[in-house]
């Protein structure tokens, strides 16, 4: 972020000169307070120092690792699901966050779906269900998480639960968008019911 923009955001009721002076003072005090600066000044730009631990960086790395395939599934999966279920700066109205939120939502949703499929393939049904349900919470319209839930119910022998999930999803799509589930999902249910 540019220094002038940061000063304007931090001191919106001040004149540009006063805001710039406040920013210079704050940066100087921050440098004195720590051996490792939290904010680096590069010309007219400010950035967070690489030495600062940011939970989003760790979550982003975990999501990428999951998508590329885990060598070993975690026994304690709840903290991972919780980490990937967090929104990016909830409640912040800033326009610049829209694209970043979209990027994070897409990455975490793909990671949760991938993790759910990995649990499903390993026969770990409860973690698969919980992970798929976390993915559905991000975007309830997206079909992939619902398909995983249906598949897990079927793998457990819970055909009625699988059909109910399909019917609930179909009703949601009809109510919200006036469309039907994909042919792939409909065929999945047909295959389950016909067996």
Automatic annotation (TrEMBL):
SUPFAM superfamilies: TPR-like. It comes from Streptomyces roseochromogenus subsp. oscitans DS 12.976. This is Bacterial transcriptional activator domain-containing protein. It holds the Pfam family BTAD. Keywords: Two-component regulatory system. Residues 54-193 form the Bacterial transcriptional activator domain. GO terms for biological process: phosphorelay signal transduction system.
């Amino acid at each position: 972020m540019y220094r002038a923009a940061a000063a304007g955001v931090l001191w919106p009721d001040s004149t540009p000169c006063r805001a710039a002076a406040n920013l210079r003072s704050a940066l100087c005090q921050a440098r004195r307070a720590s051996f490792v600066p939290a904010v680096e000044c590069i010309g007219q730009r400010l950035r967070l120092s690489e030495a600062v631990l940011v939970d989003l960086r760790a979550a982003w790395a975990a999501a990428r690792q999951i998508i590329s395939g885990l060598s070993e599934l975690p026994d304690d999966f709840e903290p991972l699901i919780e980490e990937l279920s967090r929104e990016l700066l909830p409640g912040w109205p800033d326009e610049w966050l829209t694209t970043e939120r979209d990027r994070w939502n897409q990455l975490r949703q793909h990671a949760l779906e991938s993790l759910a499929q990995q649990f499903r393939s390993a026969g770990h049904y409860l973690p698969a269900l919980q992970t798929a349900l976390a993915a559905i919470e991000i975007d309830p319209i997206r079909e992939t998480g619902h398909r995983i839930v249906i598949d897990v119910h079927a793998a457990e022998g819970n055909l009625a639960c699988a059909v109910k999930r399909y019917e609930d999803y179909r009703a949601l799509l009809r109510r919200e968008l006036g469309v039907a589930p994909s042919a792939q999902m409909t065929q999945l249910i047909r295959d389950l019911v016909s067996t």
